[in-house]
C-alpha cells in the first residue's frame, strides 16, 4: 500500500467510501443524485463545489447516455481529478535566493512543515536557510531551532517579542550574503487577534520585497485538513492579505474531511503543493492529484 492509500484511509472509509456502495449496481435515478450529493457534502466538499460537481456529472451522463450507476463512479473519478490543478513541474522558483513565506494559523502544522521542507530541499542539494519570524511564540522559535539543529540546517531567529519584519529582513539579507538557494520563512499564526496578524503578515511581505526585488517568490498557506470548512474561511482571509500562491494540506491522515481539498481549490485557484500524510518528514509528499483521488475513492 502506498503512503497515499494509507494516509487517506479515514477520508476513504468514513466519507467517500459510501459512494462506492452507492454506485455499486443500480440504475441511475433521482435517488442516485440525491445520495451522491449528500455523500459529497458529508465528505466536506462544500455546498458550491458539490453542486457544481453534480451538475457537471449530470451533463456528462446526458451527453453520453449513461444509465448504469457504476459508470458514474469512473466519471466521478475523472471529474474529481480534473477539479484539482496538476502540481507545477518545479515547486521552487528559479530565483536565487528563492524566498517562500509559510503562512497559516497556529496548530496547522506550519513549523513542522517548514522543517520538513527544509530537509527535503537540502537532501535535494539546495542550500536552505530557515527563518523563525513567529516572534510571539517562544515555543515556535524553539521548536524550529530544535528541528534546524537536528537536520543541520542554518536558522535565523529573533528575540521573543521582537519585530517579525526585522527577522524576515535579516533573513533575506543573510540568504543573499551566504549564497542561499532557498529561504523558508515561518510566520506567526495566532488566531485570536486576527486583524493584527494579517497586518503583520502584510508588513513581513512588504519588508521581504524591499530586501529583495521580486520576493517573496511564493506564499504557501498551510491548512489543517481536520478543520474542514473552517480551513476554507482561513484560506479566504489569508488570500485577501497576501496573495497565496500554493497550499499545503497537513494532517490528511488524521482527517475524514479530505473533500475540503476541492473546496479550497475552488476558492483559491492555486495548486495544492504538498500533502501531510503523517508526522514523519517523509510523510510530507508533493501533491499528486491522481494519487489523492484514487486514495479517497479507491
Ligand atoms: P504550528 O503551530 O502551525 O507551527 O504547528 P506545528 O508544526 O507545531 O504542528 C502541530 C502538530 O501537528 C504537531 O504535533 C505536528 O507533528 C502535527 N502535524 C503536522 N503535520 C502533520 C501531518 O501531516 N499528519 C499528522 N498526523 N500530524 C501532523
Describe this structure in words.
With 298 residues, the chain is α/β, with parallel strands linked by helices. It has twelve helices and eight strands. It has helices at residues 3-7, 9-22, 30-42, 47-64, 69-83, 110-123, 138-151, 164-178, 194-211, 229-241, 260-268, 289-297; strands at residues 98-103, 128-132, 155-157, 182-186, 218-224, 246-250, 272-276, 284-286. It has an eight-stranded mixed sheet with strand order 3-2-4-1-5-6-7-8, sandwiched between helices. Strand 2 (128-132), helix 7 and strand 3 (155-157) form a beta-alpha-beta unit. Helix 3 runs antiparallel to helix 4 (47-64), helix 5 packs antiparallel against helix 12 (289-297) and helix 8 runs parallel beside helix 9. The radius of gyration is 21 Å and the shape is elongated. Guanosine-5'-diphosphate (GDP) binds next to helix 6 and helix 7. Part of the signal recognition particle protein translocation system, which is composed of SRP and FtsY. It catalyses: GTP + H2O = GDP + phosphate + H(+). It is a peripheral membrane protein. Belongs to the GTP-binding SRP family. FtsY subfamily.
Describe the SSE topology:
Blueprint: H1 3-7, H2 9-22, H3 30-42, H4 47-64, H5 69-83, E1 98-103, H6 110-123, E2 128-132, H7 138-151, E3 155-157, H8 164-178, E4 182-186, H9 194-211, E5 218-224, H10 229-241, E6 246-250, H11 260-268, E7 272-276, E8 284-286, H12 289-297
Bound molecules: guanosine-5'-diphosphate.
Guanosine-5'-diphosphate binds next to helix 6 and helix 7.
Number of strands: 8
* Distance between the first and last residues' Cα: 12 Å
Shape: elongated
Contiguous uncertain segments of 5+ residues: none
Major sheet size, sense and barrel closure: 8 strands, mixed
Strand content: 5-15%
Alpha-beta classification: alpha/beta
> What is the CA-atom radius of gyration, in angstroms?
21 Å
Mean pLDDT equals 92
Count up the helices.
12
The portion of residues assigned to helices is 40-55%
Amino acid at each position: 500500500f502506498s503512503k497515499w492509500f494509507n494516509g487517506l484511509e479515514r477520508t476513504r472509509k468514513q466519507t467517500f467510501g459510501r459512494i462506492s456502495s452507492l454506485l455499486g449496481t443500480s440504475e441511475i435515478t433521482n435517488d442516485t443524485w440525491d445520495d451522491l450529493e449528500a455523500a459529497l457534502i458529508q465528505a466536506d466538499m462544500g455546498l458550491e463545489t458539490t453542486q457544481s460537481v453534480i451538475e457537471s456529472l449530470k451533463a456528462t451522463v446526458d451527453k453520453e447516455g449513461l444509465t448504469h450507476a457504476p459508470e458514474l463512479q469512473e466519471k466521478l473519478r475523472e471529474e474529481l481529478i480534473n477539479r484539482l490543478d496538476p502540481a507545477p513541474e518545479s515547486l521552487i522558483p528559479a530565483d536565487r535566493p528563492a524566498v517562500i513565506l509559510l503562512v497559516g494559523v497556529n496548530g496547522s502544522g506550519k513549523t513542522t512543515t517548514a522543517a520538513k521542507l527544509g530537509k527535503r530541499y537540502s537532501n535535494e542539494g539546495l542550500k536552505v536557510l530557515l527563518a523563525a519570524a513567529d516572534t510571539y511564540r517562544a515555543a515556535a522559535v524553539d521548536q524550529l531551532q530544535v528541528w534546524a539543529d537536528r537536520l543541520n540546517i542554518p536558522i535565523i531567529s529573533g528575540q521573543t517579542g521582537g519585530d517579525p519584519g526585522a527577522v524576515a529582513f535579516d533573513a533575506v539579507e543573510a540568504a543573499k550574503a551566504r549564497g542561499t538557494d532557498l529561504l523558508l520563512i515561518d510566520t506567526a499564526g495566532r488566531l485570536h487577534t486576527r486583524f493584527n496578524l494579517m497586518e503583520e503578515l502584510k508588513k513581513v511581505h512588504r519588508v521581504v520585497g524591499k530586501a529583495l526585488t521580486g520576493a517573496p517568490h511564493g506564499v504557501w498557506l498551510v491548512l489543517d485538513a481536520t478543520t474542514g470548512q473552517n480551513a476554507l474561511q482561513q484560506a479566504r482571509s489569508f488570500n485577501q492579505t497576501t496573495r497565496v500562491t500554493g497550499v499545503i494540506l497537513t494532517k490528511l491522515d488524521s482527517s475524514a474531511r479530505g473533500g475540503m481539498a476541492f473546496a479550497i481549490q475552488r476558492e483559491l485557484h492555486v495548486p495544492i503543493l504538498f500533502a501531510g500524510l503523517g508526522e514523519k518528514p517523509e510523510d510530507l509528499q508533493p501533491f499528486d492529484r491522481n494519487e489523492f483521488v484514487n486514495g479517497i475513492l479507491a
